[in-house]
Specification:
InterPro entries: FAD-bd_FR_type, FNR_nucleotide-bd, Riboflavin_synthase-like_b-brl, SIP_FAD-bd, SIP_fam, SIP_rossman_dom. Helix content is 17%, strand content 36%. It is α/β, with parallel strands linked by helices. The strands form three sheets. The protein has a seven-stranded antiparallel sheet with strand order 5-4-8-2-3-7-6. It has a six-stranded mixed sheet with strand order 12-11-10-13-14-15. A hairpin with an 8-residue loop joins strand 4 and strand 5. Helix 3 runs parallel beside helix 4.
Length: 253
């Protein structure tokens, strides 16, 4: 249902000073058979800033196939952080391939990891009338963080491209509308068949590039959801390496 009022862009963009940090792994936890939660510590984290649930930091590992000093780099969501403790938590969706998935699977206390950023945040208010969160395993760390920061009475629908539901955060809105889809086609069919709730809402989507592009199209064109209240990101792309892009129309703003 569309509002008669002209949509207003309420999202705020914040820039941060980029800092590169050398951190030490202090804890590693396996979760749900497909996620690895890594806790990092370092005095430099006392100045760490992450203002939005879908911020990303750049992780760096030595590139064994390139020259000395060459680095592999990937973007990951800060799952949680505590500046007083100098602590940062990252959650990896492990999938059996790729250098960073492999690193997470073998991670152990005492190892080191280089982390830079975030360079900025897109701060989405929590007081919308309703929230839709759409994504696959790679989007789960951001979705879980968002669930923790939303008010207990927030109206939230989760649209997850997953075979089964991951462990939900203990702190989350009391009532969640859950939708699981085993295939991209099923996810898109579910979104297409669902009615947008009444009131002002925000839709956040992240996952594979082709699937997210289709989700963006149906939300904007088929359902008429305002672009001012939409963020769509491609966290990965089938057949591509180190792919991360904004897909919504505000990306060029």
């Amino acid at each position: 249902m569309l509002s008669d009022q002209t949509p207003v862009r309420r999202v705020q963009r914040v820039r941060h000073e980029i800092q590169r940090r050398e951190l030490i792994v202090t804890d590693v936890q396996r979760r749900d058979g497909r996620f690895v939660v890594v806790t990092l510590r370092g005095e430099s984290l006392r100045s760490f800033v992450s203002s939005s649930f879908d911020d990303h930091v750049k992780l760096m590992l030595p590139d064994p196939d390139a020259g000395e000093g060459a680095l592999l780099m990937r973007d990951y969501t800060p799952r949680a952080f505590d500046t007083a403790r100098g602590e940062l938590v990252l959650e990896f969706a492990v999938h059996g391939s790729g250098p960073f998935s492999g690193w997470a699977e073998q991670a152990a206390p005492g190892q080191t990891l280089t982390v830079a950023g975030p360079r900025g945040s897109m701060v989405i208010p929590v007081d919308y009338d309703w929230h839709w969160l759409v994504g696959d395993d790679t989007a789960w760390p951001a979705i879980a963080r968002r669930l923790e920061e939303l008010p207990a009475d927030a109206r939230v629908s989760l649209w997850l491209l997953m075979d089964d539901l991951p462990t939900l955060p203990a702190r989350r809105p009391a009532a969640l509308d859950l939708h699981l889809a085993a295939t991209p086609e099923a996810l898109l069919q579910g979104l297409r068949g669902a009615a947008l709730p009444a009131g002002e809402g925000f839709v956040w989507c992240a996952g594979e590039a082709h699937t997210m592009a289709q989700a963006r199209e149906l939300l904007l064109r088929d359902k008429g959801h305002p672009k001012e209240a939409l963020k769509v990101a491609a966290y990965w792309k089938a057949g591509a390496v180190a792919y991360h892009a904004r897909l919504d129309e505000e990306a060029a703003a």
